[in-house]
Write a structure and sequence with these properties.
The chain is an alpha/beta fold. The chain is 42% helix and 13% strand. It contains 14 helices and 12 strands. The structure holds pyridoxal-5'-phosphate.
């Protein structure tokens, strides 16, 4: 039994605050979590209000058409409701897409979001990876020509490395791919990338003209709703209609739905968070230069710093109540650090300085 799952790994989520409380006896208020790319400024105030007001409707299922949320997204992206599917996180939309295709082969960058591989292996797919760790579209195209995978994943910008393809290169690439292959553009950090550099902006509306492109986005990162589990997929009606065949009813909760609807109305909160993210990121770059650490230029809300003995350093940070992501399991010594609030970052710099010297 379960032979088909033999070489499937369990997804390693960022360590939760609760674990550090239990294992190190540190008070929750003294723990700094910079491991899961959450919004350090919290949820949008309007979403908090809405959830409080909706608490007395917990016994009701949500409006399963997700009408109001889709209206909000449709307006934001200048598309139609029928181009949108809602998922419990964009993870669930990825799952629908992979399930819908049941691919024999999938193609992705060597180091990218782990769920692409995990979901694909559930259907026995062969995983093809580019030689380069970061996205290199020439390599993608070479492998595509030889192998003709049914799905190609592009993580723009890429988690966990932070690099980002130029939108024009992505569109050129799409034009060269047969309509038999589904291209999934994971835009989990697009809000950050398009703020930093307009050349990186993938407009969901622009993917609608392709028969074979699915764009996914999430409320978990810039919108500060990681714990509510809301994401979306955007594509032409044919793709969306088929993905809906796989969606269970009420796949997000009554409270999540309200939170996401209101978060969309709190654009100012989201924008300020993104601005602060890049202000703080500059301090990480300065810290890296001062300590001779290499880093990857990031278009997201995290940064990868190359640090010797990263596993040991991550463990020592944890003992001080700071949770970061060790990259050693990807085969190189580095830390992926979510950009926190000013005070959080300063505390990290102070402790990290002591550990690397
Ligand atoms: C966080 C993340 C997601 C999805 O997160 P959800 O919380 O499931 O919406 C998808 N792709 C990447 C690359 C991510 O980093």
């Amino acid at each position: 039994m379960f032979e088909n799952l033999a070489d499937l790994k369990i997804y390693e989520a960022g360590k939760p605050i609760e674990l550090v409380v239990r294992e190190y006896g540190i008070e929750p208020k003294d723990i700094i979590k910079l491991a899961s790319n959450e919004n350090p400024y919290g949820p949008p105030p309007k979403a908090i209000q809405a959830v409080k007001q909706t608490a007395n409707l917990m016994h009701r299922y949500p409006d399963d058409s997700f009408y109001e949320l889709k209206e909000g997204l449709a307006k934001k992206f200048d598309i139609k409701d029928s181009n949108i599917i809602i998922g419990a996180g964009s993870d669930q939309v990825l799952e629908f897409a992979i399930h819908a295709v049941m691919p024999k082969k999938v193609l992705m960058a060597r180091i990218t979001f782990a769920m692409y591989e995990i979901y694909s292996k559930q259907f026995g797919a062969k995983i093809l990876k580019t030689p380069s760790s970061m996205h290199n579209l020439d390599e993608f195209y070479e492998i595509y020509k030889q192998e003709k995978p049914e799905i190609i994943f592009l993580c723009i910008p890429n988690n966990p490395l932070g690099e980002c393809l130029d939108a024009k290169d992505v569109y050129e690439f799409i034009e060269k791919i047969d309509e038999e292959t589904l291209i999934i553009i994971d835009g989990a950090y697009q809000e950050f990338a398009s703020f930093k550099d307009k050349n990186k902006e993938i407009k969901p509306k622009d993917v609608l003209k392709y028969q074979n492109v699915l764009y996914t986005g999430t409320f978990s990162k810039a919108y500060g709703l990681g714990g509510m589990r809301v994401g979306y997929g955007i594509a032409n009606e044919f793709i969306i209609k088929n993905l809906h065949k796989l969606r269970p009813p009420f796949n997000i909760t009554t409270l999540s739905l309200k939170a996401a609807i209101e978060a969309l109305k709190d654009e100012e909160f989201v924008k300020i968070g993104i601005e602060k993210n890049f202000e703080e990121m500059k301090k990480y770059e300065k810290f890296a230069k001062e300590h001779n650490l290499k880093y990857i230029e990031s278009y997201t809300n995290f940064i990868v710093l190359y640090i010797k003995n990263s596993t040991l350093i991550a463990q020592n940070l944890l003992k001080k109540g700071i949770i970061v992501r060790d990259m050693a399991s990807y085969g190189f010594d580095a830390l992926r650090i979510t950009i926190g609030k000013k005070e959080e970052n300063e505390k990290l710099f102070t402790i990290l300085k002591g550990l690397i010297n």
